[in-house]
Specification:
Layout (H helix, E strand, L loop, with lengths): L1 H25 L4 E7 L24 E7 L3 H10 L5 E3 L3 H7 L6 E10 L7 E5 L14 E4 L5 H12 L9 E4 L5 H6 L5 E4 L7 H6 E6 H5 L2 E9 H6 L1 H19 L4 H12 L27 H13 L16 H9 L2
Parallel strand pairs: 1-2, 6-7, 6-8
Antiparallel strand pairs: 3-10, 4-10, 5-8, 5-9
Helix pairs in contact: 9-12
Length: about 350
């Protein structure tokens, strides 16, 4: 009898243990993932969940906190300190994170924004009636970029170096937030500014300014922004990150579908508080808008080429092969789920 009672007690204890563990698992909180961004709608992370039903794993296996930064170099610091899980870095800032910040474990996991000739991307504008007619005319002048070490800053430095001009010797650079660029140019506080949609669409600004060059002019097809995470975080959160990337690709495809464009523009307008009129002519329009890969696949060859040219110009320490610093296995699995 005592043996039977003992067996029953053990069985009951085991059942309680399993039940408690199961209840604990059911109550497990979604993993919070902090993702950096600089400008939206160029970067989709702040708006990817605005359409109900797109992010199916949001609130289940993960939640996202979109964290705004003025530039990519500030994201590097946050990533290094553990205050950010995914940083949006470009072909310029990625090698700096690996080489200068010592994050050799950093991995590219998905694409975000690519600057391709013939599509809309960062432009570098001067006054139509001003003295700047060629790049050489910028000698002794003031150039405005949104953050030192960012995409626009590297593109300007690359173009100036090609014309034998070095910052702080032949010209001065200053940091100006994106929304203030047009005012800085029109008020003649800078001779060249970085211009991105929608901040450069004010009619009087367009009438009084012109494009001097673009990022592809300076560096060729360029990866402006890619999602990057550290290898240790990827290894310990593979399932959650795959869920996130599945939702991310689904969001890309939804926003890029012409059938959804009118609603997509309204959603972006509501999130950014920018009138729809400033989006209607270009947002999610082929060739006129921003280039997005529908599967969020980064162009690793372009990244390698960009870094090689930056190295040749003395802007980064050494060449990097992007494929050696990419982990696209999660993205591949996420895409497979959607087929």
């Amino acid at each position: 009898m005592r043996s039977i009672k003992g067996a029953m007690a053990c069985a009951l204890a085991a059942w309680v243990t399993v039940s408690v563990a199961g209840a604990g698992a059911a109550r497990a909180e979604p993993v919070k993932i902090r993702i950096g961004w600089i400008v939206t709608p160029q970067e989709l992370s702040p708006i990817m969940f605005a359409k109900d039903g797109v992010a199916r794993h949001n609130g289940v296996s993960y939640t996202v906190e979109s964290v705004h930064f003025q530039g990519s170099t500030l994201q590097m610091t946050a990533l290094q300190s553990g205050d950010l899980e995914i940083a949006a870095l470009g072909s310029n800032s990625f090698p700096l994170a690996v080489q200068n910040a010592g994050m050799s474990d950093l991995r590219i996991i998905a694409d975000e924004v690519r600057d391709v000739a013939g599509w809309n991307g960062p432009e570098y504008r001067v006054l139509k009636d001003g003295p700047i007619k060629t790049v050489e005319d910028l000698k002794g002048k003031v150039v405005a970029t949104n953050v030192y070490g960012g995409v626009s800053d590297i593109a300007v430095k690359a173009m100036m170096l090609k014309h034998r001009m070095v910052v702080n010797r032949d010209y001065t650079d200053i940091e100006i937030p994106m929304p203030q660029m047009s005012a800085v140019l029109l008020e003649r506080k800078a001779d060249l500014v970085n211009a991105v949609h929608p901040f450069d669409l004010e009619p009087s600004y367009l009438d009084r300014s012109r494009v001097l060059f673009t990022t592809p002019d300076a560096l060729g097809p360029f990866e402006v922004s890619m999602w990057t995470a550290r290898a240790g975080y990827i290894a310990s959160h593979r399932a959650v990150l795959t869920d996130l990337l599945e939702d991310y690709v689904r969001a890309f495809r939804w926003y890029l579908d012409p059938a959804h464009r009118a609603e997509a523009v309204r959603i972006v307008s509501g999130v950014t508080k920018v009138p729809t009129a400033l989006y209607e002519s270009w947002l999610f329009v082929p060739q006129k808008g921003i280039y997005y890969d529908p599967d969020a696949k980064p162009d690793l060859d372009a990244v390698t080429s960009n870094i090689r040219e930056e190295h040749e110009l003395g802007l980064v320490k050494a060449d990097l092969e992007a494929k050696d610093y990419a982990d696209l296995s999660l993205l591949k699995e996420a895409i497979a789920r959607l087929k």
